[in-house]
Amino acid sequence: MSKKSKSNEWLQGLFAPLSIILAFVVSVLLFENLMGNPVNFQGGNPAGEPISGNYLGIIYKGGFVVPILMTCVLVLIIFTFERIITLGKAKGKGKLNEFVRNLQKMLAEDKIEDAIVACDKQRGSLANVMKAGLLRYRDLQDDKSLDRDQKISSIQKSYEEAAAIEVPMLSRNMVIFSTLASISVLIGLIGTVLGMIRAFAALAQSGTPDALALSTGISEALVNTALGITGSTLAIIAFNIFSTSIEGYTYKIDEAGFSLTQTFAESLKK
């Protein structure tokens, strides 16, 4: 592996933890300075009731769990953009289906050099994998030291090795989405339970219940429930969309590899 590749791997490894830390810092700042702004509360006191209809103040009453849930949502947004950019680069230039059809046509016409040039222009993951197979294809055409089965095995190996490098890049960071889908709703439930404990504690007081403590507890419960469910739902949707896209792209890579191997096998019969 080259120094540049090692450097890229190192930077990509830091991206996830740095993104989470940044999202948490931003969430805390927004929670304290925007949602906790005195203008959102009656009498300018964040310890009091939110102004009627002021959702920032209502969210602030969700308590310390809110910044954690906000962090989950911000991390989700960050990695959604990361996946869009990464998968966009992986698809390369132009329409993928058209690129595959053109490659199959060039292979059928034995235009190997033209196919390699087309891969260089396309610049996607599929093009990179196909180029590795095509280069081996070209080398094996005039190789007299190997028999037919060995040549087919060799071209399959070259293709599979290239695919083993490219395909994992497509699924990088997908675990973030599945993790957020699980923990967002669980963190929200923790906030809900804490809010209900506060609400029942207000009801349990002798005499007249503390209305402020009761409303604060209920707000905390409902806000955390809403944020947790929202974060989990968005994470599930994003995970399913990107998983479907990756599966379709992986299928195209496998299809192109099979086509390359079959074309080469047919050329050996001539």
Chain-wise SSE layout:
Layout: H1 3-35, H2 55-60, H3 65-91, H4 96-108, H5 112-122, H6 125-141, H7 148-171, H8 174-203, H9 211-269
Helix pairs in contact: 1-3, 3-8, 3-9, 4-5, 4-9, 5-6, 6-7, 6-9, 7-9, 8-9
Can you describe what's shown?
The chain has 270 residues and is mainly α. The chain has a domain at 96-169. Helix content is 81%, strand content 0%. It has nine helices and no strands. It starts with a helix and ends with a helix. 31% of the residues are buried.
Features:
rod-shaped; 81% helix; mainly alpha; 270 residues
Biggest sheet record: none
Instruction: Write down the oligomeric state.
Output: single chain
According to DSSP, the number of beta strands is 0
Structural class: mainly alpha
Strand percent estimate = under 5%
Tell the overall outline. rod-shaped
Number of helices: 9
Please write the string of helix (H) and strand (E) elements.
HHHHHHHHH
In the predicted model, the low-confidence regions spanning at least 5 consecutive residues are none
Question: Could you give a short description of this structure?
Answer:
With 270 residues, the chain is mostly helical. It has helices at residues 3-35, 55-60, 65-91, 96-108, 112-122, 125-141, 148-171, 174-203, 211-269.
